[in-house]
Design brief:
- The structure holds two protein chains of two kinds.
- Chain A is 69% helix and 8% strand.
- By secondary structure, chain A is an alpha+beta fold.
- Chain B is of the alpha/beta class.
- Chain B is built from seven helices and ten strands.
- Chain B has helices spanning 42-49, 75-79, 97-106, 112-125, 141-153, 171-186, 198-204, and strands at 2-9, 19-26, 31-35, 57-62, 65-66, 82-86, 159-163, 190-195, 207-212, 215-220.
- The chains are: A alpha+beta, B alpha/beta.
- Chain A binds chain B through residues 1-2, 5, 12, 208-209, 211-220, 222-223, 300, and chain B through 50, 72-73, 76-84, 90, 92, 94, 103-104, 106-109, 111-112, 151, 155.
Chain lengths: 300, 229
């Protein structure tokens, strides 16, 4: 079958079934949009994790004279204990990337700076603040190595990982992105069913053409090709619309947030990265659905 | 060209066979009428030749192919050697005469050059020269059937099947259509025509196959519509 003939047949068919083509394009658009949102949300969580995990530290709080932590019953940390901790941290390179010691006065200053107007911390004194080692790790996921090494060690009051503060946030974001993907799966199911129904109707409304094609000896491929191409065109148009909406959402919506908040948000470059996958998924599913439906409903 | 070897066809959900123990042979270039009452098995016989249905028992051989063992991917090649004409013409209403005939070649991937040469020639042969731009609804029944015949013949098939091609036409037009089929037959094309039209059968005096309740009850050279007395 000649290309020009196929294209003209498709053009005529699309014009005749314009409302069906539009409905396939729109449902595809909504499903690809949700799929894209889910995938981009995952990328956002990953980007934030990379960014924050590079900055989060494990804090080893040392005992103060008046600390009521169970491991501090012997009183404030001694110089020997402090040296022992420091040398132990030194021995843990390259996992331990950097060690920042923080004295009681420095901890007090930071607290005052952060909560300068808060009445809760007004009466606090530097001697009440714990001295600490802030440890930056080359691989932040291995924080439990530090925790297990130092928790309960002489002179150590507590070991805290800042990841624990961020993890609930990431978990919520991750949950939302999975929600978007679940919704996308539902929408993909809708579009698959709609494509199948549309093709059944198209095959029925064009049974005279396909009947003649069959009688004159056209192959199954030639008879099915226009249906598959029409579905593909509607799907690609729908996907393109969805990509446009995603681009606008990320470019203008998140782009604006990025200028306001100190968080590294995803950019339109991420949209372009996921575009081939989204379009390929939508097109692949459309072709598969069309082919399976035609095998069942178009007698060849 | 066509051979039935003890062929039986029983449709699903039917206890009565549509064709039963049919054996016959139609040679290259023959013109054969298939006659019989409605439900006698005429259309089933044509559908078996066209490989639209498979026989329940026995062998059907068409153009050197044994249809019971023909894989489905080879069915289109078989159908390219068979032209088919129906009572209801089956033209595409939104295509003009030229496009309707050209469609049969376009879907087979023939070149534009070939189509432009062959379609007018075929239309001229069936007597539709000058009507290329007409849409089917602008044509009479006889003209529409000529378009259908042109479409069936444009690819120069070895066999032309006609299932009641005159069923919707008046007697004069019917005779014209059958004369056209006779002309096509003279080019070497085998014609198998199922019909109810006694006048035509009696007038042309070709080979007649008569079916009754799925059984072949008469195979007569230069026969008439009714059985000889």
């Amino acid at each position: 079958m000649r290309l020009q003939f196929i294209l003209s047949e498709i053009w005529v068919a699309l014009r005749r079934n314009l409302s069906m083509a539009i409905s396939v394009a729109l449902v595809t658009m909504v499903s690809v949009l949700f799929l894209g949102l889910g995938v981009l949300a995952q990328r956002q969580v990953d980007a934030m994790k990379d960014y924050w995990y590079d900055r989060v530290q494990v804090s080893i709080f040392l005992c103060t004279a008046k600390s009521d932590l169970p491991n501090c019953s012997t009183g404030a940390v001694t110089d020997v204990q402090r040296r022992e901790i420091r040398s132990q941290l030194g021995a843990m390179r390259p996992l331990v990337k950097n060690v920042f010691p923080e004295s009681q006065q420095q901890a007090y200053n930071r607290l005052k700076e952060q909560y300068q107007d808060s009445p809760t911390y007004r009466d606090i004194k530097p001697s009440q603040m714990p001295e600490s080692f802030r440890v930056q790790l080359s691989n932040p996921t291995k924080y439990d190595v530090i925790t297990s090494s130092f928790k309960g060690a002489p002179g150590v009051g507590d070991v805290q990982d800042q990841r624990r503060i961020l993890d609930p946030l990431f978990n919520v974001l991750r949950g939302l992105s999975f929600g978007a993907l679940a919704l996308a799966a539902l929408m993909v199911l809708c579009s698959v069913l709609l494509v199948a129904t549309t093709i059944r109707q198209m095959a029925f409304s064009r049974r005279r053409e396909t009947g003649i094609m069959r009688l004159v000896g056209a192959s199954a491929f030639v008879i099915q090709l226009p249906f598959i191409l029409e579905t593909l065109i509607a799907t690609v148009v729908g996907s393109a619309l969805a990509i446009g909406v995603l681009w606008a959402l990320v470019g203008y919506g998140i782009g604006y947030l990025g200028t306001e908040l100190p968080i590294n948000f995803i950019t339109t470059a991420d949209v372009w990265t996921v575009t081939p996958w989204l379009v390929a998924t939508a097109a692949g599913l459309a072709i598969l659905t069309a082919w399976l439906t035609l095998r069942r409903y178009l007698k060849v | 060209m066509i051979r039935f070897e003890n062929v039986t066809k029983t449709y699903r959900r039917s206890t009565q066979p549509a064709l039963q123990g049919i054996s016959l042979e139609v040679g290259r270039g023959e013109f054969v009428f298939v006659v019989g009452q409605s439900g006698s098995g005429k259309s089933t016989m044509l559908r078996l030749i066209l490989c639209e249905e498979a026989s329940s028992a026995g062998n059907v051989l068409v153009a050197g192919r044994e249809l019971s063992s023909l894989p489905s991917r080879k069915v289109p090649a078989l159908r390219r050697e068979i032209g088919t004409v129906f009572q209801d013409f089956r033209l595409l209403p939104n295509k003009d005469v030229f496009q309707n005939v050209a469609f049969a070649l376009q879907v087979l991937g023939k070149s534009r050059h070939h189509i432009k040469a062959v379609v007018p020639e075929t239309l001229e042969m069936v007597g539709l020269g000058g009507l290329e731009k007409r849409l089917p609804h602008q044509l009479s029944g006889g003209e529409q059937q000529r378009v259908a015949i042109a479409r069936a013949f444009v690819n120069k098939p070895a066999i032309l099947l006609a299932d009641e091609p005159t069923g919707n036409l008046d007697p004069t037009t019917s005779l014209d259509i059958v004369r056209l089929l006779d002309r096509i037959n003279r080019t070497g094309t085998t014609i198998v025509m199922a019909t109810h039209d006694d006048e035509i059968v009696n007038q042309l005096r070709k080979r007649v196959l008569e079916l009754d309740n799925g059984e072949l009850v008469r195979d007569q050279m230069r026969g008439g519509y009714g059985a000889p007395r």
